[in-house]
Amino acid sequence: MKSIITRLVFTVGALVFIVPAVAAQGLPEGVTEQMITEGETIFKGAGICFSCHGQDAKGVPGLGADLTDKEWTHSDGTYEDLVATIMKGATNATGAVMPPKGGPPLTDDQVKAVAAYVWSLSNKPSK
Ligand code: HEC
Fold first, then answer.
1. Model's pTM, two decimal places?
2. For 32-123, CATH number?
3. Dist. CA 60–CA 54, nearest whole Å
4. Hey, where are the domains in the chain?
5. What is the pLDDT of residues 5-14, one digit of tens each?
6. Of 84, 102, 114, 115, which has the fewest CB atoms closer than 10 Å, so is most exposed?
7. What confidence tens digit (pLDDT) does each residue in 79-121 have?
8. Ligand 1: which residue has its CA nearest to atom 1?
């Protein structure tokens, strides 16, 4: 009897700590820390995003936009919007073109990961 109560107390106690810890991360649905880390590798590597947006993603004048501010030209900047924008590409005011997926044949999962990384740049104070 006592052990059941002890277990219950522990379970409830653990939930009280675990639930807010998960919620506090505030990641969009479907996004994990792992995706953000993987996305950074893609951004700075195989995705060649860095070539137009810069290694620090702060943009290149006349070319790729700054992706670290909260100003979005092609969407509202939500995670879903970023996935959609990266999927279809974009053209800036001077006619510079970002092809779909930035050019390389990224998989859907890679696009989601790189979108998660881009999202994190303007939504996580630690980055
Ligand atoms: C060939 C150059 C080029 C490459 C490579 C490229 N982009 Fe872009 N990107 C652009 C241009 C140009 C725009 C439009 C910028 C504007 O309107 O000011 C843009 C826009 C964007 C936007 C929308 C910004 C906004 O303000 O709404 C996102 C998000 C983005 N790029 C992410 C990426 C990611 C992620 C990659 C890699 C998978 C990538 N880009 C690769 C040139 C590039």
1. 0.85
2. 1.10.760.10
3. 6
4. 32-123
5. 666 666 666 6
6. 84
7. 999 999 999 999 999 999 999 999 999 999 999 999 999 999 9
8. 98
